[in-house]
Amino acid sequence: MYSPMPFPPLQQKVLLGKRGGIAYWHGAIKLQEGTLREVLIKEMLSGDQEVRRRFWQEGEVTTRLRHIGVTRLVARSEQRLAFDWIPGESLRLLLNRQHTMPLAEGVNLLRELLGALEYLHSEGVVHHDIKPENVMLPVGWPQVAQPVILVDFGMAYDHLKAQDIHAGTRMGTPQFMPPEQFRGVRGDARSDLYSAGALLFDALVGHPPFPNALGWLAGFDSTQFSVPGPLPLSQLISTALRREPADRIQTAAKMMDMLLRIPV
Ligand SMILES: Nc1ncnc2c1ncn2[C@@H]1O[C@H](COP(=O)(O)OP(=O)(O)OP(=O)(O)O)[C@@H](O)[C@H]1O
Ligand SMILES: [Mg+2]
Q: Which residue minimizes the CA distance to atom 30 of ligand 1?
């Protein structure tokens, strides 16, 4: 059951944009002890049942998550979610600009992302929408010590919630979506690891791994681009991207092990 909390006073808000029935604001909220906290606010404008359920789901899941590599919810109400503002840009923006990144940077990025995924999976949460748009890089990355942060839990599944709001729906982005998600089957840790493999591919090669993503997901086209680089890298990516979850890398810790074997 959704239980709203009082939302703190909003200050200095600047509208970033409106999309899909949600308004995005950059601003500050005043916390109970009087301090200002810089935040990203998502405000639900839509009356659409599906948009509302996803919005509330994001609030429910993120409210209990505490990890340096995971977006931090600081306040929520029925209409608003406030997350700590992350100074930086998404991995998508960086790739739009520079197309690819060097192997050592890709390995570092994935190592950080896997730290966050290991935590989420140990909490019984599957993100279900790992892609460059949802990974935030701090200003100055990779030269700075600040962490890479995973955002956007609108598709997440939380084993603590009795009801699975996404069952039977096709969620995610075809280029990064594992085949079971395309079939509407709820994924597990291995689904996020599939998407993490596709993300690494995109970051290193400059495009996602399947030229015909929908054909691959539907099962009639298995053409996959090859991965340039050392053998441990192509082994990691090709195992992460197997069609059957049982044939894939099974845990974030295992993927981390394989990552450490890549010479950079
Ligand atoms: N805490 C944050 N601080 C700063 N920017 C953020 C923060 N969280 C998300 N963003 C940026 O806003 C964009 C949209 O956020 P998010 O993915 O959570 O929203 P969404 O409603 O799922 O939208 P979309 O449909 O674009 O995925 C992200 O791609 C990211 O660039
Ligand atoms: Mg997003």
A: 90
Kindly tell me the burial class for residue 181, based on how many C-beta atoms sit within 10 Å of its own C-beta (0-12, 13-18, 19 or more): buried
- Strand partners of residue 43: 23, 80
Asked if pLDDT for residue 261 goes beyond 60, the answer is yes
State the catalytic residue, choosing from 129, 152, 158, 202.
129
The fold adopted by the segment(s) 88-259 is Transferase(Phosphotransferase); domain 1 (1.10.510)
Q: Which of 165, 174, 189, 183 is nearest to 246 (CA)?
A: 189
* Candidate from 151, 173, 175, 177 with most ligand 1 atoms within 8 A of CB, to mutate: 151
pLDDT, tens digit (0-9, with 9 covering 90-100), for 52-76: 989 999 999 999 999 999 999 999 9
CATH value of 5-84 in 3.40.30.10, 3.40.190.80, 3.30.200.20, 3.40.50.2300: 3.30.200.20
In this prediction, residues 124-152 reach a mean pLDDT of: 96
Ligand 1 pocket, residues with Cβ under 6 angstroms: 20, 22, 40, 71, 83-86, 90, 133-134, 136, 151-152, 154
